[in-house]
Each structure stands twice: as C-alpha cells, then as structure tokens.
Amino acid sequence: MVVAQRQNTAEYLPSWWQRLGYSVRSAFTRPAITNRLRKAERAVEATYLDRPQAEANQLQANGAASVIGSLSTANNACVQVGSLLVVKATAADGTSVVVARTLTQMELDDLSKNQTVLKDPATILEFLQSTKAKLE
Questions:
Q1: CB count, 10 Å around CB of 86?
Q2: Nearby residues of 71 by Cβ (< 8 Å), 6 or more positions away
Q3: What is residue 13's predicted lDDT score, i.e. its pLDDT?
Q4: Which residue has the higher pLDDT, 68 or 9?
Q5: Alpha-carbon distance 88 to 99, whole Å?
Q6: 11, 13, 108, 127: which could join 18 in a potential S-S bond, CB 3.0 to 4.6 Å?
Q7: 135: confidence class by pLDDT, cuts 50, 70, 90
Q8: CA quadruple 11, 17, 21, 24: dihedral sign
Q9: pTM reported for the whole predicted model
C-alpha cells in the first residue's frame, strides 16, 4: 500500500516528462488556481463577448423605440430596418399591437425574396411563422 502511494507522486515517476505533467496537473487542480482561472475566463468573456452584445442590444433597442414612436399615428405598418422588424396592427375595435423583433438570417433571406409580405401586418406575421416552421 505504501508503494502504491509513492508511485503517484512526482518524484517516483520514471521520466522527467511524466514528472512535469504530474506537477502541472496537480498545480491546476488546486482550488485557488482553479478559482483564478475561472475569474480570468469570465473577465475575457465579459470583455470580448458580453460588452459588444450589450452595445448591440442598446443600439437595437434605441432603433426600435425610434421606429415605434414614429408609428404612433399609423394604424397598420410593417417596417424593416436591417435585421429589425417592427409590425403594428390595429384591430377593428381600435386596439393596437406592436411587435418588434430581430430577424434571423434565414428570415432575412426569405424576406428579401418576398418583399410584398411587408404590405400587411397579418401577412408578415404568418410569413415569419412559416419560415420558423421550416427550421423545425
């Protein structure tokens, strides 16, 4: 039993390469090192992934708010600005519904081939549902 324990330590491994591998593995499994690596990974994610996405979301939200504000006097409208689609529909009783969403690449491609669906809010929403059904 003592022999088995000695074989698992770095000084009893036969080659320097195995000893180095053992030392590196044991160093990276220590809780303090593992925590630091997790924090560093999160910092990199925040810098390179989260911040650009937050900026894109902010720009898109501002664009949607601007488009929705300009549609206040319209009863029905479909407006596409890049990948942003804003649809406003007014029912017979006068209630309005506004939908704003980001289009997927597939939806953008389908919409570029069928621009006439932008004439009617009900048509565009049905069109997007059919595009979504293609994916499933």
A1: 21
A2: 77, 79, 86, 88, 98
A3: 57
A4: 68
A5: 6
A6: 13
A7: low
A8: positive
A9: 0.57
